[in-house]
Specification:
Number of helices of chain A: 13
Order of helices and strands of chain A: EHEHEHEHEHEEHEHHHHHHH
CATH superfamily of the largest domain in chain A: NAD(P)-binding Rossmann-like Domain
Number of domains of chain A: 2
Oligomer: homodimer
Shape of chain A: globular
Strand order of the largest sheet of chain A: 3-2-1-4-5-6-7-8
Radius of gyration of chain A: 21 Å
CATH class of the largest domain in chain A: Alpha Beta
Chain lengths: 280, 280
């Protein structure tokens, strides 16, 4: 089949590479508002050709939106109006509720599949695209009951070929859980970078002393604001809710340190250690 | 030479393995209050023999304290009283100011070298000991002007053999900078784990959805309270200071989200991206 990737960055580019490699798509058409990215994607052989959205829509079996969620919200209505009965449209955006609200009740709703691969790195653009980004990761598919059977089947088959696990949930659940396991991690990492950059005037010292632990907690702070501001915007309530909880946990730790209640501090760390059972 | 390692856990065990492998020490004596750890270290061939501290002190050229900082503070005075002119004592504790205050003015002060390898993992105990933990990492040596020349030379030679970079600072600087690049990362990670464990009642969902980003920010929350509570205790003022800054950064992000000031939020993320220049 012919697949169009709208947005030839980290996720779109990595998808393009993998779909070609696995033989899911014979041909990849790239669409990108950023002409430099699009050319780069072509130069790197990530896509087979460049096209405008309209040209690409005429010739594609599958259209994948791999752009920031605010751009998905802008582009999707026009795409849904144009989609033909033998085409499938999917998005891979990091928030889902507003996207699903937008297409709800659209006459072509059945042609749309809402997806979110729980995979990524802190880098962006076509240069960041890598093969094997998705292997053994989770693909969340949302509100699949509103997708046509054949459209869902095409996407599920693709997910299998990508060697991903599939999890099904509705948009509301998706946005709640991703706030917990993804969005708050980015908030803390951005804030940690700002903290250290402010405190540590001598940046040479950071470089000298930072070890794996620091790099691990702060690496997400390299992530692009173009991707992340729309996520926080469109998942604002859930993010605020978990951020409130996180600030209050930090304040509790601060109080215990101020009071020098090290027994309670010890118990708190022991409690946080329970994350061991969940992560490997 | 014969080296004694007091504390056969992650750091002590990894040191033991590396000192033997590099030929820095021909024989490693293990000392540990935890009899099970000590036996395990022997079974794993991390140490060559078990001994009491007094026995070990009689036969060692180098004595390394690789125990939590509160335990260092307890054990060090007795060791300093017993150290002979041809012996070297070093610690590898994660805070330095109180340790250096403790030995300041001791008649045998010259035999002591205060060190801190900026390396570790979130695991602990002899099972966690690994070769190559220290390669290309930084060893901080503190207040070296108060160490005898030959004692310092022995430690510096060892650091070279471990393929580590050396950074020199005083105890005060050390505790300040490690609060910024190490201790605060652990605080945020513990708090993030507590946040998610509280919010995410369905732990299955964390497992399904958590990807690399979440694991990265939360992995330090697996760290042992036995090691970390003493660090926070003995670096309390610096940790409280940087924790205050971190909470206020998070509160600023929260306010901007509440006010839906996404332009300012964007700029804040851009600012945090400057951490890219510092990390690779």
């Amino acid at each position: 089949m012919i697949a169009t990737i709208i947005g030839t960055g980290l996720i779109g580019g990595s998808l393009a590479i993998t779909l070609k490699e696995k033989g899911v798509a014979e041909r990849i058409i790239g669409v990108d508002q950023n002409a430099a990215h699009l050319q780069k994607a072509l130069d790197l052989n990530i896509i087979d050709e460049k096209a405008t959205l309209d040209e690409a829509m005429l010739r594609s079996d599958l259209v994948i939106l791999a752009i920031p969620v605010d751009a998905v919200l802008k582009a999707l209505p026009g795409i849904m109006d144009k989609v033909r009965p033998n085409q499938v449209v999917m998005d891979v955006g990091s928030t889902k509720e507003k996207i699903l609200q937008l297409v709800a009740g659209h006459p072509n709703r059945g042609r749309f599949v809402a997806a979110h691969p729980m995979a990524g790195t802190e880098y962006s653009g076509p240069d960041a695209a890598v093969r094997n980004l998705f292997v053994h990761k989770t693909m969340v598919l949302c509100d699949v009951k509103n997708s046509d059977e054949d459209a869902l089947e095409l996407v599920e088959n693709m997910v299998d070929q990508l060697q991903m696990r599939t999890v099904y949930m509705n948009g509301e659940e998706h946005d709640l859980h991703t706030a917990y396991v993804s969005h708050i991690s980015h908030i803390t990492s951005f804030a940690l970078a700002l903290t250290v950059l402010k405190k540590e005037k001598e940046s040479g010292r950071i470089f000298e002393l930072a070890s794996g632990g620091f790099e691990s907690t702060v690496r997400l702070a390299k992530s692009s604001p173009d991707m992340w501001v729309p996520i926080f915007k469109h998942n604002r309530n859930n993010v605020l809710d978990v951020l409130d909880e996180h600030i209050s946990q930090l304040q509790q730790m601060k109080s215990l340190l101020e009071e020098e209640d090290y027994d309670a501090f010890y118990k708190l760390i022991q409690k946080s250690n329970k994350i061991r059972k969940i992560l490997k």
